[in-house]
Batch of 2 targets.
Target 1
Amino acid sequence: MNLDALRSLGVLAGVALVCSILVSVSTTTLRPIQERNEALQRYRNVVSLTGLVDAEADDDTIFEVVAQLDARVVDLGTGEFAADIDPASVDARLAVNDPDSSTAIPAAEDIARLGRRANHEVVYLVWQDQDLSRIIFPIEGQGMWSTIYGFLALESDLNTIAAVSFYEQAETAGLGDQIEDAEWQAQWQGRKMYDDEGNVQFRVSGGIVSPSSATAAYEVDGLTGATITGNGVTNLVHYWFSPHGYGAFLSKISGEPPKR
Amino acid sequence: MTIRSTLFGPVFEDNPVLLQVLGVCSALAITNSLYTSLIMGVSLTAVCTFSNGVISALRHIIPSSLRIIIQMTVIATGVVVVDQVLQAFAPDAARTLSVFIGLIVTNCIVLGRAEAFAAKNSVGMSLLDGIGNGLGYTAVLVAVGTIRELFGAGTLLGVTIWPTATDGGLFVPNQLMLLPPSAFFIIGFFIWGLRAWKREQMEAPEYNEVKVRPEQQPDLVGKNAS
């Protein structure tokens, strides 16, 4: 090996060493701040549905409310609380890729086009003193281009929608992405999920909801130019509140309300 | 070569996007709002300045056969550091820009300046060249971002400038402005305008239309065949 080749290798090794040190230092020193950001982003969506603080609350308030949140793991198959599982260890998005912790959705029921759903989901119970005031459910499903992720909060009657938020989607810019619009989401408040027979009736309308129509209590306005995204949202709500979604859990807790 | 021409030349005289038509991919993708355009511009300026400085400092010891590998290593390092800093201190922007920060590695402007300028010039001038080219890129992004956000949403940096019709105002947003192809047209108009203003930037035609009289034709065919 001649001297030139040795020198070249030396320069390469030196550059590689210095660069890897720079990369390692930047990732390790910034990691705690990044994790805090990620947690904040995740919690902000849940906290905004509790009705306790508004979505623009400062970081410390968010963490305070999160500390009081009552996160429970629900076994979707039986509808029971799985008290032996730590909510922090449940990641429904990862679980979908693991055959042991997820279930294939029968094609006839898979209106949200998910393919599989996790066996366990984390729901959040919101307490006002000793009374249950809201339950926050994670929901997801296919829109036009992307999987839409969100949360939906039901009042303690387990029928009235208290709030909704969609926090991750890649629908058409300016059209489908209006599902993140706060004013549109505000329309969901007070709408009913189930009719008297217990079927999911809620839907995103094809246009403006007429207040006099018989189904007005179950509908929110459609989004102009986003019919397919709107249908996707309707379908994912229908799936998650059907017996294969949270249905078993909801009928369980309407029989025996959870205790604080 | 003066400090002034190195720093400000790339903004109007030799703009990386408008004259050299480099870095157009990211200029189309992330300019739908002014904020992301600014963050992207600052990120690229930081990476370009860093890589130019390092490459220039090492220019006498980098073996010429390995220079592209070393340039890519240095650029990639700069990009990772910028990406990490953004994720820590501007998480919203990092989420919106997602892969496009990582793709600065493949941005022709950065590698182009390292190869064409930093490998041959002093550290000071290379740093200025990095800042200058970053400024040239940022200027285009900010201009495109301003137009797209204003006409696409009626806002600038998220602040409402023209209340939209859905919010009770008069302005009807142009949805096309929120989609990447609109940046194509806007950058096209910029290039047209700049070349109309500075005619020396016009490219020589790639071929000249030859007007031939019938009797010259055999001659021409003979030339082409040779």
Target 2
Amino acid sequence: MRFKIFFSRFVPYLLLIVVTLPIIIGYVWILISTFSTRTYGLLPVDKAGRPGGWTLSNWSFLSKPEIWMVTSNTFILASGLTIGVVVVSMMAGYALSRIKFPGRKAFLSLTLILHAFPTVTLLIAIYFVLRWISVIPVLGRGLPIIGGFGYNTLGGVILVSLALQLPLGIWLMKGFFDNVSWDMERAALIDGCSRFRTWREVMVPQIRPGIAALSIFSFIQGWGSFIIPYSYMVNANRATIATYLNNLLSETAPTNYSMVAAVGLFQLLPVLVFYIFTQKYLLSIFAGGVKGAA
Amino acid sequence: MTEKTTGGGGKYDWFWFLLPALILVVIFFFLPIIITFFISGTNMSTATGFQNWKWIGLKNYQRISSHPETLEHLWLTVKYVAFTLVFFNLGMSLVIALLTTHISRGVGFLFRAVWLLPRITPVVVYVMMWRFIAADAPYGILNQIIIKPLGLKTANWLPMAPFLFIVLVNGFIGASFGMILFSSAIESIPKDLMMASLVDGSSYLQRIRYLIIPHLRWPLLFVTTFQTLSLMTSFEQILVLTDGAYNTEVWALWAYHKALSTYSGNLQWGFGTALAAILVTIGIVMAVIYMRYFKFEELVQEPKIETQ
């Protein structure tokens, strides 16, 4: 009997720890490695292989102008994506949740189908779309900061990421609008408030948790996104932190991984901070079904 | 009809609210789907450019069916999807869901939070961790912690066991999807039912077999179909991990390389889009099937406000 209690008490923990170990080890390694000359496994060592060798020199990449360029690009990408997804999804989600119009059902089922559709299969064709957008004057490649919306511009990368994220965003926002009471909206409309003003001043403030969840999720997605900037920016290693890091990774031997690990931690930190403080919000999205990375 | 009966709204408001989404969906979903099928019927490549290509009908598809590498990529893709799905997206996620709902709530939640980390971590950083785990002695973690103490021969394990690593790398991300769905389904089983089964003398394993698994039938089916599609089409992690080296070029990555990889001299857009068109077709068919399973009618309530 005592054995049975022991069994049911501790075995689950033990099993969990064992299967979770590879993940934990990965993050522990990145922390240790970042602050040491090099590592043998998880053990920090100096150049001769003796234990020790703690150093801050891996962070010297912070003084390179490159890293700040890719960081600002990544930040623009993540913020642009977030603002775009949230605004467009809130508009479409509102219409789908609250207005009766011909084709509403069709549009709703389309959103669902697109949500289930594996968007990554369209990457090749989107390359051609971006090439065409490039030809459009000004809009193609003549805008400040984001460069335009065509091929090899930051704006193009933002636009593609935004579009591919829309089905999830619209579906999520529709769900949040569905749960808002009808009374206030009806009152506003009867008082002669326009649809747009009702949306902006009465409805949007009521779904703040939904907006927070979608914003955080989109920002994290944009901040870590790799395949879209990698595919559509010509000089990929100067595009975003992810592509810059990928380039470093492919040309660095394990001997010098500590330096690469520091760049990785640099990219990882904001994500971890968001994650630790906003898990509750994020779970609502993951529970709604995220695809992509298998 | 033109008179407003309840004030503020205009007749075509819905159109303006939907317009931005509509434009984006047309440009980045509809148009690419059409382009995929269209270009797959041409011989377009960097050699022909955008001007001198010719319509060649189904030739690209014939080329796929007779290509010496086709079976290789297909078999690898099937193997990769099957192993990742069975051992991680279903197997591991079920194990974690069962274990974390069995122990105390707080600790269970903590473990689930850790399992979500790989999904939320930027993909290049995540793959970097795995590359270091696999790296050669004396650096790599696997060599230092397991291989060496056991006195076995050390190696760089990525080229030694590439298939294992693409399954592991994707599996540790994929497991969290099922984990979330399964654990919330298990937590929704009435507590008295769970207690009753143990009081009645069934063991934990029996409870899993006869109470929990039947309860999970629906989420299991959903995860299986949804994740099969995801695994079949996603290639980002493999691209970063091996870029298709050591025989790890799955179908989706093959298409991507043929059409967009800057390393090969001539980009074969026609052939590449034909490879992708097969995945797009599967994607559309399966997406439509899911929509039917989603119990769609229940989700679509009619709005209560009418402004016309």
